[in-house]
Amino acid sequence: AQSVAQPEDQVNVAEGNPLTVKCTYSVSGNPYLFWYVQYPNRGLQFLLKYITGDNLVKGSYGFEAEFNKSQTSFHLKKPSALVSDSALYFCAVRDNDMRFGAGTRLTVKP
Amino acid sequence: DAGITQSPRHKVTETGTPVTLRCHQTENHRYMYWYRQDPGHGLRLIHYSYGVKDTDKGEVSDGYSVSRSKTEDFLLTLESATSSQTSVYFCAISEWTGRGNTEAFFGQGTRLTVV
């Protein structure tokens, strides 16, 4: 069965520094990978996706993600973090269903 | 925002009672999902639907049933609520097209407390 793993429960970065939130995946065919963000007391919001094509995917709010087939990873990145980026981030993989990782809480400190 | 409405938004119920949560969409999307969100577990898939009357189990389906009699509505029923089903429940919708229009859109969630 397809799955994703987020190895870090918590990531802390200083404002202005680059950030990375890690995700690895396990699928039997071509991966359809996603990143979502959740702000307090809200539903999840779509950030970006990898379906096919370029390994570097750009998404909303300045986020990007790098697909690495050899390492089965899909890490979320941003060159310069903002305090407003503080939220819960989820990686997901899709077949007919959609499975999520356990989430990583990102805290950006001023 | 995608047209997804979950009802009720909050509910407190007693152990052993049946509970039904409703997800209504106005996007005519084929796929609908029910998830539960618990600290430390992220989102876990309960059931999903890939068309009217077409449903399948997810990771944590025990104690839950679903029905989809029309495209716009997907109902989640807790047959006999238990305290372990206290959670926040999210509905999501998506399409599945050759153009990769595959991302999911989420409702605002239903906070269910079983006492």
Descriptive overview:
Chain A contains no helices and twelve strands. Chain A has 110 residues and is mainly beta. In chain A, strands 2, 5, 6, 10, 11 and 12 form a six-stranded mixed beta sheet that branches. In chain A, strands 3-9-8-7 form a four-stranded antiparallel beta sheet, with no helix packed on it. The radius of gyration of chain A is 13 Å and the shape is globular. Chain A starts with a strand and ends with a strand. Chain B is mainly β and 115 residues long. In chain B, strands 2, 4, 5, 6, 9, 10 and 11 form a seven-stranded mixed beta sheet that branches. Chain B has a four-stranded antiparallel beta sheet with strand order 1-3-8-7, with no helix packed on it. In chain B, strand 5 and strand 6 form a beta hairpin.
Task: Sum this structure up briefly.
The complex is a heterodimer of chains A (110) and B (115). With 110 residues, chain A is mainly β.
Report the mean per-residue pLDDT of chain A as an integer: 93
Order of helices and strands of chain B: EEEEEEEEEEE
Share of helix of chain A, binned: under 10%
User: Could you tell me the strand content of chain B as a percent range?
Assistant: over 45%
Order of helices and strands of chain A: EEEEEEEEEEEE
Summarize the amount of helix of chain B as a percent range.
under 10%
Backbone structural class of chain B: mainly beta
Give the overall shape of chain B.
globular
Report the major sheet of chain A.
6 strands, mixed
> Would you count the extended β strands of chain A for me?
12
Low-pLDDT ranges of chain A: none
Query: Strand fraction band of chain A?
Result: over 45%
In angstroms, what is the radius of gyration of chain A? 13 Å
* Quantity of strands of chain B, as a count: 11
The poorly predicted ranges of chain B are none
Which geometry of chain A do the CA atoms define?
A: globular
